Amino acid sequence: MKMKQLALTASAYIRTRMLGRIRSRDQLLQWQEKQILRHIARVRALSAYYRELWQGLPDEQWRSFPVIDKSDMMTHFDRLNTIGIRKDEAMNAALRAEQTRDFRPGIGSVTVGLSSGTSGNRGLFLVSERERLAWAGTVLAKLLPGAFARRERVAFFLRANSNLYQSVNQGRLQFVYFDLLAPADKLIAQMNAYRPTVVVAPPSMLRIIGEAHRSGSMNVRPNRLISVAEVLDPLDRLYIEESFIRPVHQVYQCTEGFLAATCERGTLHLNEDVVYIEKEVVDAELGKFVPIVTDFSRITQPIIRYRLNDILTERREPCPCGSPYTAIESIDGRCDDLFYIPAADDPARFIPIFPDFISRTVIRASEHIEEYEVEQLAADHVRISLRVEAPYKQVTERTVEGMMQELCRQAGCVPIRIDFAPYASERGDRKLRRVRRTMRTANIPDPVGRG
Predict the structure, then answer these.
(1) Which of 80, 109, 188, 355 has the fewest CB atoms within 10 Å, i.e. is most exposed?
(2) Helices in 85-127 by DSSP H: which ranges?
(3) Contact (CB, 8 A) for 293 and 303
């Protein structure tokens, strides 16, 4: 059985490496279309929900199929998945695993997991054993090419483990799960004992590891650093890379699929060998879009024309690596974290400001800013938390406030009230979001197409 599993992973690894040799965008799109049409036919036959949703529409018109989102997926979970698993059964299994911190049991051979649910709406995912093993092969091919030929010790820092991640244990590759809910000093001690060559962790944890390395409390220097689960803020990237003199690679992975990974040049590319991404344009001039995902690699829980809640920025220049896969400049954050500020010429009208604009404004204000968070509390009220050494505190706050007000002026917004607070780092079950909006926006029109 072990050999069969290894063969499935190796097959996906080889397939991914072979597809990576495609250099023509037209050739890639033609190949994708064939895969999607074959996949759509299977999904229509196996999923009662999609069969009804697509009634009257031929497979060739799949781009006209209705767009769904997390709410639709959770509402119709029982009839959407193709193996007859009920939502309450899956939810109980996933919650039991999180409570006991034993993530090995699933439902039969099916892995069940929960998304982090930063917006309060947690999503369920189902992955078959075959899909798990294929996922492992794809991940290895993109992030650790040559992993089958050399020994690697991988440290995965995650809020919840999963059989999905355990699938990476193949051949010479050793995988150990590090629970993010454990105390930081315990995790650092485990790192010193394990001595990983590869570290996969959210940026917030990579910073803590970087701090431990700088202070001398951690004597490990991994060969590869991979950022997952949170937006990789430019400030965090710089700190981590300077700590280890290593580039930080990225993975864009969520309930809806393995969506993007960095190439050897460090550019984030959409994984268009397993997913098709339609772009719901938010700002054409800036290259910002909301992804609509069709995953043609998974059949257990089909993801077809599924609208995410993220904003991505497409890279303007082609990547030097030569890949035809779409290059991404940045993952800017969630649509829910756009700031909405009243317009100067009409306070009843609201102007959206993208999270990456906020981040860049704060970072540019001072080289003394070590960490920060910006939170919109009300339409004209923002709280900024800064970690900065005491001698630079007052001048840094004045500079940040001036630059934030200038950003508002340039955007055509009213001046805002800014309160400053000390930065308080929080670890555990909350994802780090450097820019977030807690203000309610029920009466504000959504600029990204949701009403």
Answers:
(1) 109
(2) 87-100
(3) yes
CATH assignment of 2-335?
3.40.50.12780
Neighbours of 441 (CB within 10 A): 16
Buried-exposed string 325-356: b where 16+ CB fall within 10 A, e elsewhere: bbbbbbbbbbbbbbbbbbeeeeeeebbbbbbb
pLDDT tens, residue by residue, 290-337:
999 999 999 999 999 999 999 999 999 999 999 999 999 999 888 888
Prediction pTM value = 0.86
Q: Are 48 and 83 in contact (CB under 8 A)?
A: no
Angle, CA 332 vertex, CA 111 and CA 426 arms, to 5°:
70
Fold observed for domain 338-437: Alpha-Beta Plaits (3.30.70)
CB distance 143 to 258 below 8 Å: no
Show Cβ contacts of residue 29 under 8 Å, excluding neighbours closer than 6 positions.
none
Distance between CA atoms of 84 and 442, rounded to whole angstroms?
A: 36
Read off the pLDDT of residues 159-212 as tens digits, 9 standing for 90 and up.
766 555 555 555 567 888 888 888 889 999 999 999 999 999 999 999 999 999
Q: Where in the chain is the domain with CATH 3.40.50.12780?
A: 2-335
Q: Which residue ranges does the chain devote to CATH 3.30.70.2210?
A: 338-437
CA pseudo-torsion sign 350, 355, 357, 358: positive
Tell me the sheet residues that pair with 126.
112
Whole-angstrom Cα distance, residue 354 to residue 338? 5
Read off the tokens for 32: 């994708």
Please state, in angstroms and rounded to a whole number, the distance separating the CA atoms of residues 133 and 445: 43
φ, ψ (nearest 5 deg) of residue 40: -60, -40
As beta bridge partners, residue 163 has none
Angle between helices 393-411 and 355-365 (to 10 degrees): 140
DSSP string, 365-425: H-TT--EEEEEEEETTEEEEEEE--GGGHHHHHHHHHHHHHHHHHHHTBPP-EEEEEE---
Nearest to 13 by CA among 136, 132, 127, 128: 136
